[in-house]
Amino acid sequence: MRIGELSTRTAVPVPTIKYYLREGLLPAGERTSPNQAQYGDAHVRRLKLVRALLDVGKLSVAATREVLASVDSPDSTLHHTLGTAQIAITPPVTPDPDSPAWQQAYERSEAVIARRGWRLEPGNPARDLLTQLVLTYHDLGEGDMLCVLDEYAAAAERIAAADIAAIGTRAEVDSKVEGAVLGTVLGDTLIAALRRLAQEDASARTFGPVTGRTASTAKPAEAPTGEPAPAG
Amino acid sequence: MRIGELSTRTAVPVPTIKYYLREGLLPAGERTSPNQAQYGDAHVRRLKLVRALLDVGKLSVAATREVLASVDSPDSTLHHTLGTAQIAITPPVTPDPDSPAWQQAYERSEAVIARRGWRLEPGNPARDLLTQLVLTYHDLGEGDMLCVLDEYAAAAERIAAADIAAIGTRAEVDSKVEGAVLGTVLGDTLIAALRRLAQEDASARTFGPVTGRTASTAKPAEAPTGEPAPAG
Predict the structure, then answer these.
(1) What is the pLDDT of residues B197-208, one digit of tens each?
(2) Angstrom distance (rounded) from CA B223 to CA B62
(3) Which terminus of chain A, N or C, has less C-beta within 10 A?
(4) Is A210 helix (H, G, I), strand (E, B) or coil?
(5) For the segment A18-55, what is each residue's pLDDT rounded down to a tens digit?
(6) Does B121 touch chain A (CB under 8 A)?
(7) What distance in Å separates residue B33's CA from the closest CA in chain A?
(8) pLDDT at residue A71, rounded to an integer
(9) pLDDT tier at A74 (50, 70, 90 boundaries)?
């Protein structure tokens, strides 16, 4: 198909597609004349992936390029390829190992990891990110809210097990890596959305206007009160 | 203290503080002369909260203003105040209820909510966000990765229970709301960091270079192999 049809099928404007081509986020089409190129289904798919990483994942163009490189050049093992992709989609943090506050936050983070029994290589950027967040809670005088850390870690373990199982159901390596990248980027927001819904339910049960647990099984507000609902 | 000391104590430059004052993110200091004002510890605390919402939570100035308004004017009930704050910190989504694809994604989302037994009011923006994400997975041809949805929801419920319990330990309403806002905003990233660490562990066990489950209980690479570790 020509670039115009690629644009129609993906709802991405032609100038944006040309920008992605220049930035190397999209491979060049097959040139059919000096001013024309043909694009295929692989371009449609890649364009959607690029949009998801930029728009939903809020990745930079440079980070997106790195992620795509890891999708395109699967490494020695799937585990290693997933690691490369993960590094690209994790916000970088500059560690400050000489500061006592950083040291303390680092030790607290490592203790959580140790209690879960996770075995990690040194290169995972999420380790510094975790330390940075623990430090931020403390710096804001919100250190007491970190009482949730071990519960979060247990929940994260459950999430990760589901993630790895989902990737395992796919047949091809590049499709596994693509699924892992999208699942991680989109999944963060999916979990955030579900967390807010679960919080509303938990908050209503704990702090709701109607007192106590009884409220949690009451009928919704729009239902007629005291009257049995009309049978279907 | 003067604005210079406020700047030193919070590491926020004076021009930035003045910008926050103009934008209503920080209450005015007590005027001591036409060109001078005094600031107190409440300003230090508020400034840190503003920075956390903008820098860590990536909220817009307008969204930050809304969150602060809900922190400052606790509503009729704590549950309702938390709801107002939550609306401000959830990325808005424009629903498209007339499209069949949206309808389908909506039904899938509601089914997950129903299976957890969550009782929700109509106003929670996370509901549209959830639908939008389900739609995005499908649109990208990654619908099979949504097999994780119920596991995510179960994990989110565990996270939310810990969140509400942590808020419950605080004494004052405004400190509860502040804790809830920061805990939700920072917590999203905290969970993302822990998820990546848990993924590395799960991936190593499943796809790691050493074959099979045995690898998961093997000693770390730096340990001497085949030799018993020297006793303490």
Answers:
(1) 999 999 999 987
(2) 54
(3) C
(4) coil
(5) 999 999 999 999 999 988 899 998 899 899 889 888 88
(6) yes
(7) 31
(8) 80
(9) low
**A144, B156 Cβ separation under 8 angstroms:** no
CA atoms of A43 and A39, how far apart (whole Å): 6
Does the beta-carbon distance from A202 to B164 stay under 8 Å? yes
Instruction: Give the contacts of A100 (CB within 8 A, at least 6 positions apart).
Output: none
- The token pair at A189 is 């927001």
Amino acid at A106: Y
CB-based burial of residue B141 (10 Å sphere; 0-12 exposed, 13-18 middle, 19+ buried)? Answer: middle
Q: How many residues does chain A have?
A: 232
pLDDT over threshold 90, residue B130 = yes
Which tokens hold the place of B68? 């602060």
Strands (DSSP E) along A6-68, which ranges?
30-33, 36-38
Higher pLDDT, A175 or A162: A162
Distance CA B134, CA B145 (A): 10
Kindly tell me if the per-residue pLDDT of B178 is higher than 50. yes
Residue B176 in tokens: 């509860």
The predicted-structure confidence for B133-161, as pLDDT tens digits, reads as follows 999 899 888 899 999 999 999 999 999 99
- Per the structure block, which two tokens stand in for A37? 């190129």
The answer to whether residue B169 neighbours chain A at the CB level (below 8 Å) is yes
pTM (two decimals):
0.81
Dihedral Cα B52, B54, B60, B64, nearest 10 deg = 40
Average pLDDT over residues A66-88: 80
Q: Does B147 touch chain A (CB under 8 A)?
A: yes
| CA angle in degrees (0–180, nearest 5) for A71-A76-A82 | 45
Residues of B in contact with A86 (CB under 8 A): 196, 199-200
Q: Do B119 and A220 touch (CB under 8 A)?
A: yes
A-to-B residue pairs, Cβ atoms closer than 8 angstroms: 311
